[in-house]
Design goal:
507 residues, alpha/beta, six-stranded parallel beta sheet, four-stranded mixed beta sheet, 16 strands
Length: 507
């Protein structure tokens, strides 16, 4: 696998994004019997006392055998078995972290071993980072792509938060262990990889519309890993040696792409935000947790359907051609569900037990989980539906250019798209947009419009919008909210020419 890293690094040399981080790992072993190489690796690195971190299941799957080999090699080992919560889940939260930090013999321990899947790795990578110790990855299931991550997504006070951590200095992925993993965990790993379809779309979208940093090399590495995984869906579903090898390599390579870029953008977008939202809701309700990759795979299908429902408008319009060019790279929701079905994974929110109300709420609010410029965020947070049509654009009369721009641009937050005069000193005609689909033409020309006209603009999160407007302390307006008998909340604001701009949200 180290040869594969060299190949990956060579393939990214032409990239000039300026975002690359060094990938410094001593060993990546993905083969049968890899477990047996762990002890000799630790000996060669001078580790004489290690902490082996597992849960009851992963201890049986690989921890006990590894412990015996470490003891045979003369490596003193403290075995830490993480305790589940009341629902039987191992959760990467404060309680698990405190247990881990208390049980590690800080002075004597020179390295930590994460023997398990995603949650155990997240806890160990953070603990190792805080203690200034290296850690070694020993996966027991090909269920996530976070084995090489430098961030640890932890539940802090009920909120999913990614905090700085470290990557492992080596990975020993034993195919004998991985092939014996429960089928749902193998399907979860495949689901985590399918999520790259929508994460790569969101990453490109954020780059085009919000200037988020982008690395074509990291995107290519992720895409090649995804393609290899999809092409081997049948073998993965059959849990064959080749299928599990391809899946494990793909998960590791996806992680290496994140390591190269230094952030999670290549592998995490709106589909992960939905997954995190569902996880936090389940914790709040005291429900047993769902597998991360199972949620991501289902959420990928949900986001793929959402992407196809959005049309050009506002901020989207400027880059719509490039955005549309990315759509063929996102399979249809039916194709995604069929791929999940091939590996024996859940294919719909209903199959996961996600109720319709939670699904709808997460589509409205999940973008708040992370500060990322995704299409879901553009659709939800900026106000009007991204699919707002532009067949009819209102024309409003104005008399004072300075006061009009102060109102629409400075106060309401519209953008000046363009302005026109036939010659200097003649009346102004300009186009304004809110970046979300709403457009207005405002004119000084006599006869273009009647002062005192009214325009209705549909928005989302109108209460948040009102709070933001009040916070701008505009001298001439303190907008209030009104709940109507026809099922809307409305906020009416008068511009300097007496025109009424009525923002409304359906309830």
């Amino acid at each position: 696998m180290l040869a594969r890293i060299e190949e990956l690094l060579q393939s990214v040399e032409p990239c000039r994004c300026g975002q690359h981080r060094a990938i410094t790992m001593d060993a990546i072993v993905v083969e049968r019997g890899a477990l047996g190489q762990t002890a000799s690796y630790l000996q060669d690195r001078g580790h004489r006392h290690v902490a082996l971190v597992a849960d009851a299941n992963t201890l049986r799957a690989a921890g006990e055998a590894l412990h015996a080999r470490l003891e045979e090699a003369g490596i003193e080992t403290t075995v830490i078995v993480l305790k589940p919560d009341d629902r039987g889940d191992i959760v990467a939260d404060e309680q698990s972290l405190v247990q881990l930090l208390l049980e590690v013999r800080h002075e004597a321990t020179s390295a930590l071993l994460a023997v398990g899947a995603g949650t155990i790795h997240d806890l160990v990578r953070f603990a190792a980072y805080k203690m200034g110790k290296p850690f070694v990855s020993v996966p027991t299931a090909p269920s996530v792509d976070g084995f090489t991550s430098i961030g640890a997504p932890l539940i802090i006070r009920g909120i999913k938060t990614t905090v700085p951590a470290i990557a492992p200095e080596a990975i020993f992925a034993d195919l004998d262990v991985l092939m014996a993993a429960p089928q749902p965990m193998i399907a979860a790993g495949f689901g985590d990889m399918l999520g790259k379809y929508t994460s790569l779309f969101d990453w490109k979208f954020g780059h085009l519309t919000a200037g988020e940093p982008y690395c074509e090399a990291a995107a290519d590495i992720t895409r090649r890993a995804l393609d290899a995984c999809v092409n081997a869906a049948g073998d993965i579903g059959a849990r064959s040696e080749e299928g599990v090898r391809v899946l494990t390599n793909a998960l590791i390579e996806s992680g290496l792409a994140m390591l190269l870029f230094g952030q999670s953008h290549p592998a995490s977008g709106s589909e992960h935000h939905l997954s995190h939202y569902w996880e936090m809701e389940y914790i709040r309700l005291g429900r047993k947790q769902l597998l991360h990759g199972a949620k991501v795979g289902v959420a990928c299908g949900v986001i793929a359907e959402f992407i196809r429902s959005v049309e050009s408008g506002g901020t989207l319009q400027q880059h719509w051609g490039e955005i549309v060019s990315q759509l063929p790279r996102v399979p249809s929701p039916d194709t995604i569900r069929d791929l999940l079905r091939q590996v024996g994974g859940p294919t719909s929110p209903e199959a996961l037990g996600i109720e319709e109300e939670l699904l709808r709420r997460s589509l409205r609010e999940a973008h708040l989980v992370r500060n990322r410029a995704t299409l879901l965020k553009a659709y939800n947070e900026l106000g009007a539906p991204a699919s707002a049509p532009h067949g009819a654009i209102p024309i409003l009369r104005m008399f004072d250019e300075e006061k009009t721009k102060e109102f629409y641009i400075g106060f309401l937050g519209f953008r000046l798209d363009w302005e026109h005069r036939f010659e200097p000193g003649t009346p102004l005609y300009m186009q304004l947009s809110d970046g979300l689909g709403a457009m207005l033409h405002v004119s000084e020309h006599h006869g273009d419009a009647t002062p005192g006209s009214a325009v209705r603009l549909e928005v989302r999160h109108i209460e948040r919008m009102q709070a933001e407007l009040l916070g701008r302390a505009y001298k001439y307006a303190r907008p209030g909210l009104q709940t109507t008998s026809w099922g809307t909340k409305e906020m009416c604001i008068q511009d300097p020419a007496g025109n009424k701009i009525i923002f409304y949200e359906r309830i």
